[in-house]
Specification:
single chain, 625 residues, alpha/beta, Arc Repressor Mutant, subunit A, Rossmann fold, six-stranded parallel β-sheet, five-stranded parallel β-sheet, globular, binds adenosine-5'-triphosphate, DNA repair, RecD_N, nucleotide-binding, RecBCD enzyme subunit RecD, ATP-binding
Length: 625
């Protein structure tokens, strides 16, 4: 390898501009083309680094900004034997497509996702009786457009739909009504029941949907037979596709597709490109796919922002005049303000944004704050905190104040003290039945989940690790726990690696309790609520020594909190600017709160974060339009 390039790579790693894996990738490419243009290796290292930041590819115009030597890449990149184009040799490790440089695997995943979605955008005929069924499911409401009804109509019309909306806008409600509608229509036509599956990217998100969907089905205004044909069980995507230890491949794929007619995936913002590609691969050609999620939340941990890309144009609608007319006919709504005859693509006709939160009304501080953050409106953010709404509060972020809030909560809003008090108060008698202890375990977890402290990062002064230490010490000082290390009653832990043997997934949370050990003594066990094969929930007690990868969780990162909600959510931001501080991070943190939100941050840090909207590089939207 060219010595100059080698030095550049080494310096990049030393100065943390590159990761060791990026350098290793460039060196590997050098072994394939030793005499080649060194600039290609530098570009490859940068494309690899961008993946670490969640970008699928790197815009070659941006390469020159990172490294002046790489300017004018369009002139020399295509000459390399390492670089292919969309049409050329399928074996080159890099692909240059429409000015974007990809690592081959990600280019292929993106192309697979785009092709699968494009093939589903072909409008199929709307079912007869649709208008009548929609009217029954969505009784007329005065005032604004009923976007839930619009979403239901759009999703009933074709084999692909995206329903996006903030918290409490009715995504679950809409999808339950949609499933009722689809089953009703199938029933009326004497067709077999549709095979419906519901999935979410993580166990926690699946459990939450599971809990909310059952009640919604019960309330649905459809025949009992139709109700029965709507599943309440929600599985994880990994389980649905059939994950196998030690391989990225799933049991279900193109050659062994899933057995279903309708797949609904909730919390779709958490799905990365690779997972989306695997899901679409395993989906039968004529099955219907409905994605639900909040486009403004943080993107997936791994590379890609599939939901964000699909919903990039959702605010403005971009409905075609033909869609507008059809919606007027079947829903009785006028979406003229969201119609754009000059710039309406097939994808736009399949995306509906729910715009009214039923959870956060006009007087909700959380709702106003979330909206101000999304709009990047620093003035409105400040005004939201200055208002008199008690549901949001601002606390100056000293270490002592954060720990105190996390332990004692604030007026009307719980802190961690509350679940520890609950454990003590509700402790079963020593000779109580095992079932009583199981109920106690489930109750302890529910009590624990009423409050959470969220942090932007794991490390650093304001990171999860430090907050955990301080809170544990504060709980010990107040006599609420009796140790701060090792296993002790009340210790909440989060699983950090999938453990298939124990049936515990990364992100699962348990609380440590004294329970009967089955041999006449009491022992410390960690209570988890796990889903059984039927999608029901039950409490499991796990021997602590069997948990090899867990962290104490008095605080968690915003990333880890995705898919969960807490009655009271507190968000602590670091005191220094950092790349992780973005609008999406703050929005995701705020929208984890159900009834109370507390911000622990310097006002300038909040302003800094809210001004930084991220956009992950990808070519997906371009391919779909
Ligand atoms: N059309 C409706 N009529 C009456 N109540 C509704 C309607 N839509 C939603 N709701 C109520 O609003 C609340 C939020 O609805 P839902 O859970 O469907 O929203 P969501 O977007 O799925 O929320 P989440 O943020 O939890 O994912 C629920 O209590 C639900 O019963």
């Amino acid at each position: 390898m060219n010595a100059q390039v080698m030095t550049w790579l080494d310096r990049g790693v030393q100065e943390a501009r590159l990761r060791p894996v990026d350098r290793a990738f460039a060196r590997f490419l050098a072994s394939l083309d030793d005499a080649g243009d060194g600039r290609v290796l530098m570009a490859a290292a940068l494309a690899s680094r961008e993946l670490g930041e969640g970008h699928i590819c790197v815009d070659i115009e941006a390469l020159a900004l990172a490294e002046p030597l790489l300017s004018d890449a369009q002139a020399w990149l295509p000459d390399s034997i390492l670089v292919g184009s969309a049409e050329s040799d399928p074996n080159t490790p890099l692909v240059l497509d429409a000015g974007l440089l990809y690592l081959r695997r990600f280019w292929r995943d993106e192309a697979r996702v785009a092709d699968a979605i494009l093939s589903r955008l072909v409008a199929s005929g709307a079912p007869a009786d649709l208008a009548q069924e929609l009217d029954r499911l969505f009784p007329a409401e005065a005032g604004a457009i009923n976007w839930q009804k619009v979403a239901c109509a759009v999703a009933a019309r074709g084999s692909f739909a995206v329903i996006t909306g903030g918290p409490g806008t009715g995504k679950t409600t809409t999808v339950v009504r949609l499933l009722g509608l689809l089953q009703t229509l199938a029933h009326k036509r004497d067709e077999p029941r549709l095979r419906i599956r519901l999935a979410a990217p993580t166990g926690k998100a699946a459990a939450r949907l599971n809990a909310s969907i059952a009640g919604q089905i019960e309330r649905l205004d459809v025949d009992a037979a139709v109700k029965q044909a709507i599943p309440a069980e929600v599985t994880t995507l990994h389980r649905l596709l059939g994950s196998r230890p030690d391989t990225r491949a799933f049991r279900h794929d193109r050659d062994n597709p899933l057995h279903l007619d309708v797949l609904v995936i909730d919390e779709a913002s958490m799905i990365d490109l690779e997972m989306m590609a695997a899901t679409l691969d395993a989906l039968p050609r004529d099955a219907r796919l409905i994605l639900l999620g909040d486009k403004d939340q943080l993107s997936s941990v791994e590379a890609g922002a599939v939901l964000g890309d699909l919903c990039a144009r959702a605010d403005a609608g971009h409905y075609a005049p033909s869609t507008r007319d059809w919606l007027a006919a079947v829903c009785g709504v006028d979406v003229a303000a969201w119609t754009d005859g000059a710039d309406a693509h097939a994808l736009d006709q399949r995306v509906v944004m729910l715009r009214r939160s039923r959870r956060f009304g006009e007087d909700s501080g959380i709702g106003a704050l979330a909206q101000a953050i999304n709009a990047g409106d620093a003035g409105a953010v400040t005004r939201a905190f200055a208002g008199t709404r008690g549901d949001i509060a601002f606390v100056a972020p000293s270490a002592a104040a954060i720990a105190a809030l996390a332990i004692d909560g604030r007026e009307g809003a719980p802190g961690h003290r509350d679940y520890l008090d609950w454990i003590e108060r509700e402790r079963p008698a020593i000779d109580a039945s095992f079932e009583a202890f199981q109920r106690w375990g489930a109750g302890a977890l529910a009590a624990y989940a009423r409050f959470q402290l969220l942090c932007a990062t794991r490390h650093g002064e304001a990171g999860v690790d430090k907050q955990n230490e301080r809170i544990a010490q504060g709980l010990l000082d107040r006599g609420l726990i009796d140790a701060v290390t090792g296993w002790y009653e009340g210790r909440p832990v989060m699983v950090t690696r999938n453990d298939y043997a124990l049936g515990l997934m990364n992100g699962d949370v348990g609380v440590t309790l004294w329970v009967p050990d089955g041999q006449g003594s009491m022992a410390l066990r960690v209570a988890f609520v796990v889903m059984d094969e039927q999608g029901g929930e039950r409490t499991r007690f796990v021997v602590p020594s069997r948990l090899s990868a867990v962290d104490t969780v008095y605080a968690m990162t915003v990333h880890k909190s995705q898919g969960s909600e807490f009655e009271h959510t507190a968000l602590a931001l670091p005191s220094e600017p950092s790349p992780v501080l973005t609008r999406e991070l703050v929005y995701t943190g705020v929208t984890r709160a159900r009834t109370h939100f507390t911000l622990l941050a310097a006002p300038d840090m909040l302003g800094y974060a809210v001004s930084r909207k991220t956009r992950r590089a990808s070519g997906l939207l371009r391919r779909l339009l």
